[in-house]
Amino acid sequence: MNAKILSAAVLTLAFSHAARGTQNLDSEFRKNGETVVAAFEEERSVLQHSSAVIRDGRKDIAYGAVVSSDGYILTKASEIQKVTALTVLVDTQSYEGHIVATDPTWDVALVKIEAEGLQPVVYADSGEIAQGTWVVANGATSLTRRRALPGIISARSREIPASGGAALGIILKEKSKELEIDQVNEKSGAQQAGLQSGDVILSVDGNKVSKLPELSAMLKDKKAGTTVKVTFRRQGKEQTVEVRLLARGEMFDEKSRNDQMSGEYSLRRTGFPKVIQHDILGSKASVGGPLLDLDGRCVGMNIARADRAQSFAIPADDMKALAERLMKDAK
User: Fold this and answer.
1) Helix H or strand E encompassing 88
2) In CA terms, which of 78, 173, 207, 321 is 20 to 30 Å from 307?
């Protein structure tokens, strides 16, 4: 779409609205209204062919970005980690999907489907985008048709630190002379790794720990999404597992007033090395797909619905590097 045509259309709507002297736009002229959405048909066509709908059986849970013609798709890892019947819809064709690689730092999974001749996204030259730039992403979808939602870049690219710091997701017994686990958080990497109440932690990444301050010191500079090797003792036998650290604030549902007003947001929404921020009115299930500019080029991959006013995307250059590395690892 020509940006000048879009600007003219927006101005025409604004002047028409002002002339009526009203305070509210008709629903069809709002950002997610039919008239506005129709102006982004060219971008919608790109989403139709180069984005994927990720499903758990028949339930839509996320989107994906097609990154190769032979069936590799990037999506958000934490939204699909417990899916037992992973299916992927590309254009109008449904496929069985398999997770073949992940990157916990970025919370990205690479999914493979058996397909040929797909249309991968075309990357923009850079993920650095000026504030106020129009962008387009997936909205609601049906079996046969994607829906495009427009918005603007609303903040400069930046790192999003882990909320509350990264944590194993365990509670230790207070009166124990060892690092004995009392409880394991249900959403934590510790539970996923199989740690249990009664286990005694002996070392982290090969470094012995016996007191809480030592364990805290080992974890304080770690970022959410990274993995550590935890050696523990259970019934007299030592074992070692890999535990993915999660943001403390997300594991323990620490909700601000803004969170309470925001509806559903992503399971993981912090702890990213770098993001671009936009204001598209998406949902928890809107993550994973491509973020497009008005030329239909991919400027990033939507990675988190942070709250009612913020969504985050991995910049195009980082997304491209991730895709290439994960595909190389998977082959």
Assistant:
1) strand 86-90
2) 321
Residues 6+ apart with CB under 8 A from 126: 315, 316, 317
Q: Which two tokens stand for residue 77?
A: 């890892």
Within 13 Å of residue 9, how many CA atoms lie on the same side as its CB? 15
What is the arrangement of strands in the sheet containing 207-208, beginning at the earlier edge strand?
A: 207-208, 200-204, 227-234, 237-244
Sequence-separated (6 or more) residues with CB below 8 Å from residue 183: 170, 171, 197
Residue 56 sits at the vertex; the CA angle it makes with 260 and 151, to the nearest 5 degrees, is 50
Fold match between 40-160+263-330 and 166-250?
no
The share of the chain scoring above pLDDT 70, in percent, equals: 83
Convert the pLDDT of each residue in 87-121 to its tens digit.
Answer: 999 999 999 999 999 998 899 999 999 999 999 99
Residues 183 and 169: beta-carbon distance below 8 Å: no
Close Cβ partners of 71 (under 8 Å, ≥ 6 residues apart): 95, 112, 113, 114, 115, 116, 118
For the chain, the distance separating the N- and C-terminal CA atoms, rounded to the nearest angstrom, is 37
CA dihedral 259, 261, 266, 268 (to 10 degrees): 0
What number does CATH give the domain 166-250?
2.30.42.10
Q: Which CATH class is domain 40-160+263-330?
A: mainly beta
Q: What share of the chain is helix, strand, coil (3-state, %, to 5)?
A: 25, 35, 40
| Domains in the chain: boundaries | 1-34, 40-160+263-330, 166-250
| SS3 of residue 1 by DSSP | coil
Instruction: Using pLDDT thresholds of 50, 70 and 90, give the confidence band for residue 31.
Output: low
Residue 132 has pLDDT above 60, yes or no: yes
User: Higher-confidence residue: 166 or 5?
Assistant: 166
Residue owning tokens 């299916």 = 87
